[in-house]
User: Which sequence fits this backbone?
């Protein structure tokens, strides 16, 4: 394994689009959602230990989830778990992790990954990531990985491919990003053949990633430059504690990808789904009788179709005459709502519940 290759796993999200099974104290990345024996975070970690050294994997997460990370990944060096003092989006988290990596290895190559992805073909995934590392080692660019859409999915981001990059297989300049279009636009995108689903996977060499952050967070980078030559781990943690709350709240997609000068996309071929929404889970899982997706649950179905159902262990559900619904129960909440494009709807319910009943049900 190449000691210049590093991985940043983003694991700080609250996963509210999969409420009520994903909860504030135990969000989706820490759940064995499908009864596989490994949580989504563990599966992501396993995937990258096959590609690069274990000690080169860093995890960014909220401070309240640090103990969950330690519990689920007991072999991991605790210094590689970066606990964000406050939530400021994925861009500041990646800035911090990349700063740490570049101090360890000046010519590092970095892959940034969400912690909640479904990968169908692990060998093809490994091949694409390794190809991506070779590309970013020799190009001053951000490289995203896109997947050919299989349906007009409004819950995903889309990347428009531009001109092919010379000397690189299936790598194109990015013409545009579109975040979660409505279904009609998603259909146009899919039929055009010019657009790929945005997997959220990003690769770059650490030096170029730092140059992007200089555009995005110039004041932060100036302060870092002033103290970096003699930066110990203790100095770093103190710097983050003092400065992190003042950082802009930006995602790595909106903050970095859409603002950097050189952004490319590799056409991946490993089979992929973002497991962040009920609709996506319905679309990517195998369906049983009546086109229902039953997620690790005991259920009797009668004249019911096109539903996604997840119940707690020890519960039996009997569902009769239901068509196109989410039925999800966890702890003290039962959700029954139309499946459709449900992400915004679920977020709305979470906000309403929090306002009316407090955090106990969120």
Assistant:
């Amino acid at each position: 394994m190449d000691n210049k290759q590093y991985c940043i796993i983003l694991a700080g999200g609250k996963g509210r689009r999969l409420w009520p099974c994903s909860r504030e104290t135990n969000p989706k990345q820490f759940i064995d959602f499908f009864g596989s024996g490994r949580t989504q975070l563990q599966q992501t970690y396993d995937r990258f230990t096959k590609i690069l050294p274990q000690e080169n994997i860093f995890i960014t997460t909220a401070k309240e989830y640090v103990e969950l990370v330690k519990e689920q990944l007991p072999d991991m060096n605790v210094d590689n778990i970066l606990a964000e003092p406050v939530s400021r989006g994925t861009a500041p988290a990646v800035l911090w992790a990349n700063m740490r990596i570049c101090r360890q290895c000046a010519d590092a190559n970095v892959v940034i990954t969400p912690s909640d992805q479904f990968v169908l073909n692990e060998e093809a995934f490994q091949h694409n990531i390794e190809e991506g590392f070779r590309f970013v080692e020799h190009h001053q660019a951000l490289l995203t990985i896109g997947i050919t859409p299989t349906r007009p999915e409004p819950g995903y981001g889309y990347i428009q491919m531009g001109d092919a990059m010379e000397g690189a297989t299936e790598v194109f300049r990015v013409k545009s990003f579109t975040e979660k279009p409505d279904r009609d636009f998603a259909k146009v995108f899919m039929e055009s053949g010019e657009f790929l689903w945005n997997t959220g996977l990003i690769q770059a060499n650490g030096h170029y990633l730092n140059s992007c952050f200089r555009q995005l967070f110039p004041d932060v980078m100036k302060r870092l430059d002033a103290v970096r030559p003699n930066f110990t781990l203790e100095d770093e943690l103190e710097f983050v504690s003092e400065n992190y709350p003042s950082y802009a709240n930006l995602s790595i997609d909106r903050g970095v990808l859409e603002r950097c000068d050189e952004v490319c996309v590799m056409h991946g071929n490993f089979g992929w789904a973002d497991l962040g929404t009920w609709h996506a889970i319905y679309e990517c899982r195998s369906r049983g009788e009546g086109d229902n997706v039953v997620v690790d649950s005991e259920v009797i179905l009668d004249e019911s179709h096109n539903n996604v159902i997840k119940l707690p262990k020890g519960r039996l559900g009997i569902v009769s005459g239901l068509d196109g619904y989410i039925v999800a129960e966890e702890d003290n909440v039962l959700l029954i709502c139309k499946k459709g494009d449900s992400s915004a709807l679920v977020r709305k319910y979470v906000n309403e519940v929090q306002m009316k009943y407090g955090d106990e049900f969120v």
Observations:
- The longest strand covers residues 195-205.
- The radius of gyration is 21 Å.
- DSSP finds eleven helices and 17 strands in the chain.
- Residues 207 and 327 are 47 Å apart (CA to CA).
